[in-house]
Amino acid sequence: MAGKQRGTQKEKEERKRRRRGGREQGVARYKTCAASSAAITDPPELTSPAPELTTPAPEPPKVHPTKTCIMSDIQQAMALLISTFNKYSGKEGDKYTLSKSELKELLQNEFGDSLGKVSDKAALDNIFKDLDADKNDSVDFKEFSTLVVCLTQMCHEFFTKKK
């Protein structure tokens, strides 16, 4: 046997087509995915009615009818992280930050008991104080993502030591 066959003829042709598409096509595809995911993850305005439009609304991004937006697992995880943050932020005050009560609701609903008793006021105060790096009494996305990254690292260490 001369060597391992690397997929069917159709798969080989698909790989060649992707290589020929070049960087420009990949960037365009990523921009289309980013634009379509932004429309999904932007939080709705909850406090005020829509303003009167004096100019026509911009056209939605044009997507080729036969091409689909395929995001990798990491891109899907990033989009989920952003949409989850946006789901809880802005219920009180600034829509780009979490207040202490919004953080509490997010932690209870999304992490459950994995962080311990979030309903314990002292524990919540400690978590909030540790996350609020700039001491502005709110947690922005960067500060929130620090929590998620630290928890992810702890889980990774825990499960790699078990083996």
From TrEMBL:
<dbReference type="InterPro" id="IPR002048">
    <property type="entry name" value="EF_hand_dom"/>
</dbReference>
<dbReference type="InterPro" id="IPR018247">
    <property type="entry name" value="EF_Hand_1_Ca_BS"/>
</dbReference>
<keyword id="KW-0677">Repeat</keyword>
<keyword id="KW-0479">Metal-binding</keyword>
<dbReference type="GO" id="GO:0048306">
    <property type="term" value="F:calcium-dependent protein binding"/>
</dbReference>
<dbReference type="GO" id="GO:0005509">
    <property type="term" value="F:calcium ion binding"/>
</dbReference>
<dbReference type="Pfam" id="PF01023">
    <property type="entry name" value="S_100"/>
</dbReference>
<dbReference type="InterPro" id="IPR034325">
    <property type="entry name" value="S-100_dom"/>
</dbReference>
<dbReference type="GO" id="GO:0046914">
    <property type="term" value="F:transition metal ion binding"/>
</dbReference>
<dbReference type="InterPro" id="IPR011992">
    <property type="entry name" value="EF-hand-dom_pair"/>
</dbReference>
<dbReference type="InterPro" id="IPR001751">
    <property type="entry name" value="S100/CaBP7/8-like_CS"/>
</dbReference>
<dbReference type="InterPro" id="IPR013787">
    <property type="entry name" value="S100_Ca-bd_sub"/>
</dbReference>
<dbReference type="GO" id="GO:0005737">
    <property type="term" value="C:cytoplasm"/>
</dbReference>
<feature type="region of interest" description="Disordered">
    <location>
        <begin position="1"/>
        <end position="65"/>
    </location>
</feature>
<feature type="compositionally biased region" description="Low complexity">
    <location>
        <begin position="43"/>
        <end position="56"/>
    </location>
</feature>
<feature type="domain" description="EF-hand">
    <location>
        <begin position="119"/>
        <end position="154"/>
    </location>
</feature>
<protein>
    <recommendedName>
        <fullName>EF-hand domain-containing protein</fullName>
    </recommendedName>
</protein>
<keyword id="KW-0106">Calcium</keyword>
